[in-house]
From TrEMBL:
PANTHER family: STRUCTURAL MAINTENANCE OF CHROMOSOMES PROTEIN 3. GO terms for biological process: chromosome organization. It comes from Haematococcus lacustris (Green alga). Residues 2-117 form the RecF/RecN/SMC N-terminal domain. This is SMC hinge domain-containing protein. It comes from the Eukaryota.
Length: 149
């Protein structure tokens, strides 16, 4: 799996939508003159892939928005597109409401209390791993049944 393309808009030195050229699965080089946005490009990648930004204060997040000539930018986004053609990252597809319900119940959610609020950054790694394990367990069970048929 590798990064296929990145698009930035409103993020630091990138005011307008700026899609990157497609990346190679092997080696990529980012070059440019001083002040052309190379560091901000990599800052954007870290922004998406690193948990450090979850706990940023509002004023720190405001500094991520483009501040240059022209109208102010009210929002920003960074989109990273991955190429998973090697299948390294499994894609799980749930079929039907009962499968989704069973998966959520295996992760600790209850039918009797359908209301939950999980604040951003508050889901523990332990909880995420439990959900991933439940998905894997379900897939293994499904594959066993198919082999037995």
């Amino acid at each position: 799996m590798h990064i296929k393309q990145i698009e930035l808009s409103g993020f630091k030195s990138y005011k307008d939508a700026a899609p990157s050229e497609p990346f190679s699965p092997r080696i990529n080089v980012v070059v440019g003159a001083n002040g052309s946005g190379k560091s901000n490009f990599f800052h954007a990648i870290r922004f998406v892939l690193n948990d450090a930004f979850v706990n940023m204060r509002a004023d720190e997040r405001q500094q991520l928005l483009h501040e240059g000539a022209g109208a102010a930018v009210p929002q920003a986004y960074v989109e990273i597109v991955f190429d998973n053609s090697d299948g390294r990252f499994p894609i799980v597809r749930l079929k039907g409401k009962s499968e989704v319900t069973n998966l959520l119940e295996s992760a600790g959610f209850s039918r009797s209390n359908p209301y939950y609020i999980v604040q951003q950054g508050k889901a523990a790694d332990r909880d995420r791993r439990a959900l991933e394990f439940a998905l894997l367990e379900r897939d293994l069970s499904s594959n066993r049944k198919k082999l037995e048929e």
